[in-house]
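Narrative summary of target 7.
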Amino acid sequence: MGWFLQNAWLIPCLPLAACVLITFTPLRRNTAVSGWLAILLMATSTVLALGLALEVARGVHVRADGQVELLPPGEHGGEGARGVGLLAPVGAEEGTFAFAEPNIVRRAEWAATGLSRFEMGFLVDAPVAAMLVMVTLTSTMIHLFSLGYMAHDARRARFFSLISLFTAAMLAMCLADNLLLFFMAW
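Modeled conformation, tokenized:
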């Protein structure tokens, strides 16, 4: 329980790995293998996204210390949350709203410069899980369609390398927990 949430970083890394493998290894000479490799890694990302969405739907939360907890329905807003749904009313005043607690947040320090430091990481909640499923499923279908569509193109390996890079960037944008990583993926 919680494995898919803790390994959500793999979802954009698999298409990125396809891009790197196709671009920097002799796979770029074999257009059929490069296409199938991109499809295989994209399909694996889709399976990971589906597992992550199931864990989010079940109410699995991973705390900052790594402990996995299962929150019953209606308590997805964290401690002190009232109400049900993605927007749970929270706060001192009645009628004020805040987003529900994310299922997992992982951050790492990226660049420390003097007194300031930049952190980036990933955040997963219900809308992010839905976007990951939509993007991975659609991209897998596009990869499959492209295998036949690009069958007679001499630069098919380059195409699959670039479409894998594009998909990895889209998935990183979905997972980004701040604008720095969002614009780097953009």
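Residues 48 and 125 are 15 Å apart (CA to CA).
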